[in-house]
Design goal:
The structure holds 2 protein chains of 2 kinds.
Chain A lengths: L4 H21 L6 H12 L3 H9 L9 H39 L1
Chain B lengths: L2 H21 L3 H25 L4 H24 L5 H25 L1 H4 L2 E2 L2 E2 L1 H29 L12 H22 L2 H19 L7 H23 L2 H24 L4 H6 L6 H10 L9 H9 L3 E6 L1 H5 L3 H13 L3 E6 L9 H8 L7 E3 H4 L8 E5 L8 H4 L18 E6 L19 E5 L2 H12 L1
Parallel strand pairs in B: 3-4, 3-6, 4-5, 6-7, 7-8
Antiparallel strand pairs in B: 1-2
Helix pairs in contact in B: 1-2, 1-10, 4-6, 4-9, 6-7, 6-8, 6-9, 7-8, 9-10, 13-19, 15-19
Chain lengths: 104, 466
């Protein structure tokens, strides 16, 4: 009997929860705020769905309802991606300055 | 691009995201981690574009959409003050939630573009996942908006409760499950929209009864929800990158919620049911306390005490951040260090408005991260320390959490500042903290109250240290 591809995806999902569990416990508490902003940024990988939606064909080549929703979703995801990674970088940069000062 | 190749590349995206989180295990590797995250995201976007049939006009619109979003996001990220991080993150969560809803609606109306079947004849597995994804997305959206408004002060931070609230939520929750089942059976668009509206409503209803002090838990919880929403959409679109990311973010948010709950010694359910900080018994203890004598001092006394100490532990709280006193505080610490005073910082898990918030605020003021300690690492040191300088914190130092089983904060881990030879409290007045509990430390012989704005007091102390 053939295995439903859904089972493979479910396996990936369950194993990823465990990876997430162990990786996140090893995050130092002082970086919990950057952790939240970076997880927020990566969850915007939902943009892949938005891309499919914004490029979907309506048949006649017109912009369809799904396309419009797709474009809106791209805007929202892009705010998150740029905002999330940028603000994380800004925070992590603050943890860097002090290292330099200490070395002097 | 072949489906197999794109799947492999999406898997790589997932791996890069795992490395991004892994990097955060220490400040040294964290920037590399962020770079992995960005690389993963770029890869995911490029692969998705290459795997769809490109229509030129749509590509143009896509680039415009990406630039608009990117510009807005970039400007916000550049301008946002670090004190406002909690509301920024809450706001960002709402966007992930809304994006999940939009993608799901789009997939519902054009399932053929997503390879899920035809309109109202979507594969059963996909419609289940779509129903779950859209529902969690909608809950994340409205819930995060309420959290954002509470944190931004656009809405009162006090819990909003009404009779029958829990019953209403239970009914709505059951209704949502019923709607998903019904949606699987007939795929009607009315049911789909009712499901979205019911989910939006419950997202709003579950956050309004939660008080301002519990916001760290709420943000972490919504972080987790946004992950599960992404995973739900990932299952619908059969996309590995989304499934992995959703699982990572979902478990990350769940762990942070757990850490925050533990920091307040409260069960998750207790936080969700809400209404904290309005208990009547806490008011009684206030009235009792106000007649007791309090020793209050000025900046001169404080600087004298600290200058002559051999060790000082600073206990910052959210009040310090509100007063923007962190830079003045660091100046004070620099002066003390010149006087050969050993200074360290003690951070309670729930100091600030989100996990790790206080660490970022201190980092912004150039406080070296190796001088900043978590509760478990520093709590034994208070007994050998001369002065505890508590600035803008209150409940997290209250010994009543260890002694009085009737207190609402009983059992919460607290910083043992009372074990120091003397305790300095910088506070605006005698008002109790968020939990509404009086702090008996204020009336102790070895406590000196410094009634002033945190920033002004710290600056005055700096002047006196010269």
């Amino acid at each position: 009997m053939e295995i439903d591809p859904f089972i493979f995806r479910l396996s990936i999902f369950i194993l990823s929860i465990f990876i997430g569990y162990f990786v996140v416990w090893s995050v130092t508490p002082s970086l919990h705020t950057p952790l939240m902003s970076v997880t927020n940024a990566i969850s915007s990988v939902i943009i892949v769905g938005a891309i499919i939606a914004s490029f979907s064909f309506s048949g006649e080549g017109d912009i369809s309802f799904s396309n419009i929703l797709g474009f809106l979703a791209v805007v929202l995801a892009a705010i998150n991606i740029f905002g999330g990674f940028f603000v994380t970088q800004r925070m992590l940069q603050m943890y860097k300055k002090k290292e330099k000062k200490k070395n002097k | 691009m072949s489906a197999n190749l794109s799947s492999i590349l999406f898997l790589i995206t997932g791996v890069l995201f795992i490395l991004a989180l892994r990097g955060l295990s220490s400040p040294e590797t964290s920037r590399m981690g962020n770079f992995f995250g960005i690389a993963g995201m770029v890869l995911a976007i490029v692969v998705s574009i290459l795997s769809v049939d490109i229509l030129f006009t749509n590509l143009l619109y896509f680039i415009i959409a990406l630039s608009i979003g990117g510009t807005i996001g970039g400007i916000i990220a550049f301008k946002i003050p670090m004190t406002a991080m909690p509301q920024l993150v809450a706001g960002f969560h709402s966007l992930v939630g809304l994006a999940a809803v939009l993608v799901a609606v789009s997939a519902y109306y054009s399932p053929d573009s997503f390879g899920l079947g035809t309109f109202q004849n979507i594969k059963t597995a996909s419609i289940i996942e779509m129903g779950l994804g859209v529902s969690i997305g909608a809950i994340t959206f409205t819930g995060s908006i309420i959290a954002f408004m509470k944190l931004q002060g656009l809405m009162s931070g006090s819990p909003i409760t009404f009779p029958g609230q829990h019953y209403l939520n239970a009914i709505l929750g059951t209704l949502i499950l019923g709607l998903i089942i019904y949606l699987i059976a007939n795929q009607s668009s009315q049911i789909f929209w009712i499901l979205i509206i019911a989910s939006l409503l419950i997202g709003f209803l579950i956050i309004i009864p939660i008080g301002g002090a519990d916001m760290p838990v709420v943000i972490s919880m919504l972080n987790s929800y946004s992950g599960w929403a992404a995973a739900g959409i990932g299952f619908t679109l059969e996309n590995t990158a989304l499934i992995i990311t959703g699982a990572l973010v979902g478990s990350s948010g769940a762990i942070l919620s757990y850490i925050m709950c533990k920091g307040m010694n409260r069960s998750f359910l207790n936080v969700i049911l809400g209404g904290f900080g309005t208990d009547s018994h806490s008011n009684e203890s206030n009235k009792k306390g106000e007649q007791k004598p309090v020793k209050s001092g000025n900046a001169e006394d404080a600087s004298f005490l600290m200058k002559n100490a051999s060790s000082v532990i600073i206990v910052p709280g959210y009040g310090m951040a509100v007063a923007q006193a962190q830079h003045a505080l660091r100046e004070m610490v620099d002066k003390l260090k010149k006087n050969d005073v050993k200074v360290s910082y003690a951070i309670h898990p729930v100091a600030g408005r989100m996990p790790g918030h206080m660490n970022v605020l201190l980092a912004e003021a150039n406080v070296p991260y190796d001088e900043v300690f978590e509760l478990d690492d520093i709590n034994n040191d208070f007994a050998n320390t001369d002065v505890a300088f508590v600035i803008g914190a209150n409940d997290v130092t209250n010994p009543v959490a260890k002694t009085d089983p009737k207190s609402p904060i009983f059992g919460m881990p607290v910083l043992d500042v009372e074990k120091c030879k003397s305790v300095l409290f910088v506070k605006r007045g005698m008002s109790p903290g968020y939990a509404g509990v009086d702090n008996e430390l204020f009336y102790r012989d070895n406590t000196l109250m410094l009634f002033a704005d945190a920033k002004k007091m710290t600056e005055d102390i700096v002047k006196n240290l010269d």
